[in-house]
Amino acid sequence: MKTITKQLFILALLASGFTAQAITNSAIAVSGTNIVLSWPSYGYESYLIQYRQTLDPSDSWSALTNAYHANSTNRTTFTVFGVVPQQGGGGGSYSVGSGSPPSPSFASSSMTAMNSEPLAVPVGGAGGGAPVAIYPPGFDFSNFNIFDPLSGETASGVGYTVPLLQQSALLTQDDAQPLDGGSGGPPQTGFYRVFHIPSFPAWVTNYTFDGPTFIPVDYAAPDADLDHVDSTTVLIGGQPNDYTQFMPYVINGVTNWGVGIYFDLLPNGTNTIQLLTTVRQSDVIDGQTPYMVFSNARAAITIGNLITFTNCDDFIWNGTNYTFNAQTVANVDWEIDIYDWNGDFVNYQTGHSSDGNISWTWNLYDYWDNLRNNFDSDFAFFPYFTITGNLPSSAQNGGMEPNANSSASRWGKTAAGSASSVGNWVVAYQDTFYTDGVTNAEGANMAYSDGISSIVSEPKYQWEIPTVQYPLKFGRTYTQSERNDSWYYLKSYLGYPTFRNFYYFGHGATNGIGCDINIVETNTILGGTNFPGSRANIPEWYIRQSIAYNAESGSHPYRFVYLDCCDAGAGGCSDAFGIPKEANGMAWYSSPSNTRHIRPNAFVGWDSIIHAGPADKYWQYRSTWIFRWSRGGTDVDLLQALDNARDTSGWWSVPDITQHRKIYGASDMTFRQ
């Protein structure tokens, strides 16, 4: 029998390990009519540069330029031309760019480029002054002194109001293009900020990618530190690509973070690559957790695989056969060896291809004539391709053999068994949710316990479906290690192929779930927070690449997911679990539109902060929903059960529940369908 160890990323491309630091010691200076921004750099980074005129909530940041490349190995500069009025007036137009103005004198402030406007200085001298023009109309200056730089006089800010400022054009989101200042002239005050954005190294445009490849990315704290990256998406040809992994790679004892890409699942030829990185801007986890999405510049790449696997199904979906396909060079002998989930040999086939196309339709019988179509035990099959012929020397194993009869081998696309049963359940919840930091939650905690028990009992006792009730260690009574380990084991449950249904209650946000402790004010839970370096959470990227779109172990889309937490229905969590983020009736799953051949599935979540309300009614809603869905058999679908709970529980208002409840996939799916 042949024994081959399956490995993930065969090739590591590391020009040098990134050691990016946070952007510190940023500065702003006035040079003539120009503003010059500067910050430390190593020479390889890319930046997003933004401008905001005031702190008024109606104002927002706009991009001056994106993917701006560092122009120095010491200190990068960026110039905004013509924004400072000339002495004696004069408006005109202004532009942004990277030119070299004459000898600027840098100041350690990024607040404003003007020195003639009144400044608001905190009483007691805490902090420097800021132009009064940046404060919103009606701002209370009682705790400030107002300094007039023209007269040198200082007065109390009590009763002070912002003078009527001349209207000026705002900078808009045009990449380094000239901006018309309009009749009012260029903006006279404002804020600028610079983000170091994650990007690929420059050599990607000069490399031919073949097979699974790791590409380092310069993630940098604090702008895109690893603990706050909740989602990563690689665009190939402008389209999202699920054959990627956000991952570390250790070389010479140094851990490098980046993305691993299965290029052999992509067609050969020239293409483009781009990285989108969703970064959480706060450790606070609730329905208002802020995010920023950074995008680097598109780069041209060449994909040149010796063997590609671009036209294979994700699933063995019909239960009778599966076709292994590959493309390579012409005139080769080939062999396909199949291994099962446990690494045991299953069957093999050989053949010859004159045109480079390899195809074998396997009837799901193993070498000993046993049918292998019970996908509740045979979760996935792994094909290993070997080709022999006159191969390009760069792809040979061991160099040229006599008569140019060289060979090469590669793992093909994993064939996941399409689940044939309802699958197991995981019911996870943060155990001290109502009591962490709170002293008056005895009644709420009792309702909590009863509600969770109701959800567990329906699959486990009513239908005898294997169900794990999993209390997550949460709150101040546990150590960080205990909380981390608790989430580690939850990930193990979720990743095992027999589990296909997941209910979670606790804190969450747009692109992930979980945190360490409650944020409490006057015995009221306002949200949750993560500590630095915490692993007591599951970000969206982990769900996507480790479960539903796992290119190594096989795709594992979930049948049913209910993320009962703030805002998780607004982001990418549904699709990360393999549930299309759209409303699809049951008929869609047997239609040609279901190109992946996924089984019926459904997702429930919320797109806002969840109204707490009385705890007994809160959990009455959940108990009613699961009871109606479970006991209704084939007569009550998911939407009907949720509507019944909405209408009868008294929790929140009917319009609010209807508006903020998000149901994706098959809302007409019944409990055991």
Written account of the structure:
The protein has 673 residues and is mostly beta strands. The chain has four domains: 27-195, no CATH class; 198-303; 316-415, Immunoglobulin-like (Sandwich); 424-665, Rossmann fold. Strands 14, 16, 17, 20, 22 and 23 form a six-stranded mixed sheet that branches. Strands 24, 26, 27, 29, 30 and 31 form a six-stranded mixed sheet that branches. Helix 5 packs antiparallel against helix 6. The longest helix is centred in the last third of the chain and has 21 residues, at 442-462.
CATH architecture of the largest domain: 3-Layer(aba) Sandwich
Q: What sort of overall outline do the alpha carbons produce when their principal axes are compared?
A: flat
- Reading off the top of the CATH hierarchy, the class of the largest domain is best stated as Alpha Beta
* Number of continuous helical runs: 7
CATH topology of the largest domain: Rossmann fold
Main sheet characteristics: 6 strands, mixed
Q: What is the domain tally?
A: 4
Estimated structural class: mainly beta
According to DSSP, the number of beta strands is: 42
Mean pLDDT: 85
- Residues in helices, as a percent range: 10-25%
Tell me what portion of residues adopts beta-strand conformation.
Answer: 25-35%
Low-confidence stretches: 1-22, 89-94, 99-115, 164-187, 395-403
Distance between the termini: 40 Å
What is the rounded Rg? 29 Å
Supply database-style keywords.
flat, mainly beta, 673 residues, 6-stranded mixed beta sheet, disordered N terminus, Immunoglobulin-like
Topology:
Blueprint: E1 11-12, E2 27-31, E3 34-40, E4 46-52, E5 62-69, E6 75-81, E7 95-97, E8 105-107, E9 119-122, E10 130-131, E11 144-148, E12 153-156, E13 191-197, E14 208-209, E15 212-216, E16 229-236, E17 239-241, E18 244-251, E19 254-262, E20 269-280, E21 284-285, E22 291-295, E23 299-303, E24 315-316, E25 322-327, E26 332-339, E27 345-353, E28 357-362, E29 380-389, E30 406-411, E31 415-417, E32 424-430, H1 442-462, E33 467-472, H2 480-495, E34 499-505, E35 508-509, E36 512-513, E37 517-521, E38 524-529, E39 538-539, H3 540-548, E40 560-564, H4 573-576, E41 602-606, H5 615-631, H6 638-648, H7 654-660, E42 661-665
Parallel strand pairs: 1-15, 14-23, 24-31, 32-33, 32-34, 34-40, 40-41
Antiparallel strand pairs: 2-3, 2-8, 3-6, 4-5, 4-13, 6-7, 9-10, 9-11, 11-12, 15-19, 16-17, 16-20, 18-19, 20-22, 20-23, 21-38, 25-28, 26-27, 26-29, 29-30, 29-31, 35-36, 36-39, 37-38, 41-42
Helix pairs in contact: 1-5, 5-6
